[in-house]
Amino acid sequence: MSDEKREHPASGGTPSSEASPDVPDFQFPPYITLAHLFDAPKGWAIHNRTMGQYVLQYVVEGRADYPVGGHMYATVKGDLLFHRPGELHSILTLEGEPYICLSLVFHFGDHDFPISQLFGDSHLLGNYAGTELEKKLIRLVHLYRQPGISSQLQAQGLLLEALGEAATGLNRTSTVSTVEERIKAKLLLLQNHIREHYAENVQHSDLEQIAGLSRNYIIVQFKRQFGLTPMQYLTWVRIQKARELALQTNLSVSEIANLVGYADVHTFGKMFKKKTGTSLSQFCSALVTYKV
């Protein structure tokens, strides 16, 4: 036998010819520079902003208008928006509506990542309320805030998974997409109808006639989009309007009850206290005390 010895790299090692000692082993794309949950304060908005990186914006609760790339998107709970570096965009919250979102800002450094092959010119990537993708985005934000390379690697992996799943969603048949958009438009129509006619005796039959959908279907889909059933949303709108009237006028509780759709002040009082934990009279008294 020859006495010549063969060189073997140590177990788990890398031959020196393949090593890249000048490159940190934990720095690779996608580079996440921001991942947070944002609860917009009342009246908050962003006008005509551009970003230098890619952005994913996911609506956790509420709704907002989102103009980007020359298009206006009326986003609701579960919508995933995407825009590219340099694209002019705005985020416009709606009066009386909450807006809670996940914002993910990232880039690929000098790497030529084929993002256009994933999304083309699209901005609205789909609605993912209650899906696994939603859970991944929430976990990504949590991991981003944790120290250590393990958390960073997991966050980067989840971002890549989210991009891949969103791209798959965009490749669904045009028929399915068209149906979903049509249903979403009808749900927005119902939401606007409730907001405009909250002082009236809004019934499920009215909503069925407006949307051309069955009662049960409306209830399920409305809650999926907005987090509340139509009647729960009606109650929420009435409470907000009652608070506004208490703040802006000197009307009595009975007059406010009537203006927000309750002929019986006692029924209104029970509802208001059940939903808010305080009566409207106590709410008004607290306001007076605060002002003094």
Summarize this structure as a short list of keywords or feature phrases:
292 residues, alpha+beta, Jelly Rolls, Arc Repressor Mutant, subunit A, 3 domains, 10 helices, 8 strands, elongated, disordered N terminus
What layout of secondary structure does this protein have?
Elements: E1 31-39, E2 45-49, E3 54-68, E4 71-76, E5 79-83, E6 89-93, E7 99-107, H1 115-119, E8 124-127, H2 132-144, H3 149-170, H4 174-196, H5 204-211, H6 215-226, H7 230-248, H8 253-259, H9 265-276, H10 280-291
Structural write-up:
It is built from ten helices and eight strands. It folds into three domains: 24-170, Regulatory protein AraC (Jelly Rolls, Sandwich), CATH 2.60.120.280; 174-229; 233-291, Arc Repressor Mutant, subunit A (Orthogonal Bundle), CATH 1.10.10. Strands 1, 2, 3, 4, 5, 6, 7 and 8 form an eight-stranded antiparallel sheet that branches. By secondary structure, it is α+β, with helices and mostly antiparallel strands. Residues 1-21 have low confidence and may be disordered. β3 and β4 form a beta hairpin. Residues 188-286 form the HTH araC/xylS-type domain. Residues 1-23 are annotated as: Disordered. Keywords: Activator, Cytoplasm, DNA-binding, Transcription, Transcription regulation.
